[in-house]
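Worked problem 6 (solution included).
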Amino acid sequence: MKTIAFAAAAAFGLSAAAFADHHMAGPAGQSFEISSGEESYVGTFNADGTYTTDTGAEMGWTFEEGELCLTAMTEEGEEDTTCNAWEGMAVGDSVTTSEWSDDGSEITIERIE
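Solution. The predicted structure is:
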């Protein structure tokens, strides 16, 4: 689940206009449908720095200088942070990527809000 939870932040390959609209503000207020194989869920980047999913998962996020970082707690109680470049997506855009996957599997991300 962590693999596809981190995937919600992976947002690449959009038009210059969409990039300008979303790059500077980061993903605050945006929701994405994430799917990998038979699994899918919706994740939302909240303005308070939390990332929540419709499956009940919650983690923190930060966005600085074009880099998006997601921080989750491991079962051992340690922080696990993953960071990647973030360029934003327009509503309705989707991308398939392995950038946010721990095991290199492909994940499809669609911005829905």
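Discussion: The mean pLDDT is 82.
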